[in-house]
Amino acid sequence: MKITILQKKLKDGIKVVERVSQRTPSLPILQNVLVKSKKNFLTLETTNLEIGIRWWALIKLTKEGEIVVPTKTLSNLINLLPEKPVDLEVENLNLLISCENYQTELKGFSSSEFPIIPYLKEGERIAVDGSIFCQALAQVVNIASPSVARPEVSGVYFSFQKDLIKMVATDSFRLGEKKLFVKSPLLQEYALILPQQTAREILTIFGEKSGDIQIYFSSNQILFESAMEEVDHPQVQLSSKLIEGEYPNYQEIIPKKSETRIVCSKQELLNHIKTASIFSGKANEIKFKIDPKEKKLHLLSQSPDLGEYKSFLPGKISGKEMQVSFNHRFLLEGVSEIKTPEVALELVGEDSPVLVKPTEREDYLYVVMPIKAS
Fold first, then answer.
1. Is the dihedral of CA 221, 200, 7, 102 positive or negative?
2. For residue 196, what are the domain limits?
3. Are residues 245 and 129 both part of a single domain?
4. What residues pair up with 247 in beta bridges, in sequence order?
5. What are the DNA polymerase III beta sliding clamp C-terminal domain coordinates in residue numbering (predicted)?
6. What whole-number distance in Å separates Cα of residue 51 and Cα of residue 181?
7. 218 and 267, same structural domain?
8. Which region holds residue 73: left if phi is over 0, alpha if psi is between -120 and 50, else beta?
9. Final residue of a structural domain among 217, 250, 283
10. How is the beta sheet containing 102-107 ordered, strand by strand?
11. Residues near 80 by Cβ (< 8 Å), separated by ≥ 6?
């Protein structure tokens, strides 16, 4: 292999792929990157056997070839080079790196030792706006929680329904659902569970890219792809295994009616929750006292060590008077994801799930379990 590529471009590519390159004592090959040149393209590939990432760049090609080298060492080296053209050449399983007055010889391995990353281009495909898709995914991804006993709830559930994608995540204490309408409808409906780590990598890699991303999926594999701006060719591909199992019927816990409804300023509510959290104690507990007659939402918290806190904020409140306690962190995270100036809270009872949603749109909802009164 013998190629020339700009340092900044190579640096950007390594930054994309190095995230899944892991130090694994049982499989040390996984802490390496496959560097490959073919048909005027440089390809970088890494994998942790669950997630695989490919990145391409246009290059000046003199000779095709490939080699496997340590990801961290290559990253540290390229990051310190000047922003000038970099020459890469393979010679006797060594990668020769030259840039201005810098010359390095990096020991490598044969590409035959590197795991093959599945290349999924069959099955169903859908195109979505990458930025909008990532914004939607970001609203639910952090709700999921690792679970050995119930791996199916440790990821993000996707329901593809013709012109609609539903994204759902839960940790048994709260649940978030985001709806995203798409411009290229599917011929049939699909459901899958995406690992949380994969979802986070998607946000990191595709979150700030403009244009569409293509999503290919089968019964056990999914692939996300963005294209180059210069030519009709992929720039980044992320492939991942899916979580096996059936996602629980989450619709059952979403309240269908309410006894009390609160509509108030999102920012004011956030400020009151944050202030109350200072005195919430080890249980993170804050209490809502809802007064429909006075149209006030009272917040209370107390700590044996620090003291107590009381405040209220006005709102449009209808229904029954109630007292409900929450884990302030769970409530705060849900309210923070509301994208409208006002937020609606709908309550069925003092021990029942509470529905949090925007007031002017129906594309997001958050359900949080209260702390049951002792």
1. negative
2. 124-250
3. yes
4. none
5. 252-371
6. 27
7. no
8. alpha
9. 250
10. 60-63, 2-6, 85-91, 94-99, 102-107
11. none
Domain boundary among 113, 134, 165: 113
Residues 9 and 83 in one domain: yes
CATH number at residue 244: 3.10.150.10
Residues of the chain with pLDDT under 50: none
Q: Is there a single domain that holds both residue 268 and residue 359?
A: yes
pLDDT, position 294: 95
Cβ neighbours for 17, distance < 8 A, ≥ 6 positions apart: 33, 44, 45, 46, 53, 54, 55, 71
- Tell whether 138 and 91 lie within a shared domain: no
The count of other CB atoms within 10 Å of the CB of residue 161 is 15
33 and 48 Cβ atoms separated by less than 8 Å: no
pLDDT in tens, 230-272: 899 999 999 999 999 999 999 999 999 999 999 999 999 999 9
pLDDT of 369 reads: 95
In this prediction, residue 133 carries a pLDDT of: 96
| pLDDT tens column, 190-221 | 899 999 999 999 999 999 888 999 999 888 89
When divided into structural domains, the chain yields a total of 3
- Does the pTM surpass 0.85? The reply is yes
Contact 206, 213 (CB under 8 A): yes
Q: Report the pLDDT value the prediction gives residue 121, as an integer from 0 to 100.
A: 67
- Using CA atoms, how far apart are residues 93 and 68, in angstroms rounded to an integer? 8
Tell me if 172 is assigned to some domain. Answer: yes
Separation CA 254–CA 248 (nearest Å): 13
In percent, the amount of the chain with pLDDT more than 90 equals 82
- Sequence-separated (6 or more) residues with CB below 8 Å from residue 262: 290, 297, 315, 316, 317, 344, 345, 346, 347
Q: Which residues pair with 191 in a beta bridge?
A: 159
Instruction: Count the neighbouring beta carbons within 10 Å of the beta carbon of residue 6.
Output: 17
DSSP 60-122: EEEE-EEEEEEHHHHHHHHHHS-SSEEEEEEETTEEEEEETTEEEEEE-B-GGGSPPPP---S
C-beta of residue 306 within 8 angstroms of C-beta of residue 279: yes
If DSSP codes are grouped into helix, strand and coil, which group holds residue 323?
A: strand
- Beta-carbon-side half-sphere exposure of residue 180 (alpha carbons within 13 Å): 25
Residue 374 lies in a domain: no
